[in-house]
Write the structure tokens for this entry.
Amino acid sequence: MRLLSAEETAQALPWADLVETLRIMLDAQQQGRAVAPLRQQMALPNQGALLTMPAADETLAIVKVVSVHPRNPELGLPRVQGEVAVMRATDGTWLLILDGQVVTARRTAALSVLAAQALAQPSAKRGPLLVIGAGVQAEAHLFAFAATFEGMRIFVAGRTPERVQALVARAQAEGIDAQTVADLQAALPQCGMVITATSSSVPVLPDAVREDAFVAAIGAFTPTMAELPPTLVRRARIVVDTLEGAQHEAGDLIQAGVNWGLVEPLAEAQHRPPAGGVTVFKSVGCALWDLAAAHVALRHVGMR
């Protein structure tokens, strides 16, 4: 079994291959060839939590183990830690262990790219892109969208100016047209696509997006968290990464009281034409996306 560092895991998950493999995984999910139960969660001391997430298809099986420790930053330790263990599904041979934080960041951003490619109107795809947040997921989304939609201007906003400026500086160092923005109300009429990537429990995006806007809300992952205002959610076409997961965890949608009969899974929506009006893509995560990353990593380390 081979163990990849965080840097090696990132190198084994190039954006284009990851997006395409997620597209294939969505079809496998729809056809019942790839399965993943809802994640299990167990409380740990100091308000921590342990989460386990298995998934499998005809050739591979994975188990993602993640622990969340809210007090860790005070100790100089990561708030979230985890690994993804990969085995051959046919005989149980362990093949690979991937850095869980890197896998989560990259597969989540790649799935948002896939959703934007499939769901955003042509006018929205021209940008600019607004990223709200300056953490790991915000950075992954910035670089994933910049790699996919070449030449797009990117605005970054967040509650901590120093972190926002540092993220913009990293993007600019890679030749990306990125800049900070302080006034969301002024910036939103320009932006065709918006990413919210925060841990906020209250909306961070005003209900002032363009009528053709594509919004990917990926930060809130519990029923008590919400990055989007209910008024925006209620007037948008809503697509989710998995319907079952969203019904349990998508606070943005739960608090808005959405009609779940109108909410579309991405596996189905990716094959339909973009709709008029605002489109909201809500992602809460699924081990199938980690399984897709495992397929990509195995190819890029020469084990397939």
The chain has a mean pLDDT of 95. The first strand starts at residue 2 and ends at 3. The radius of gyration is 18 Å.
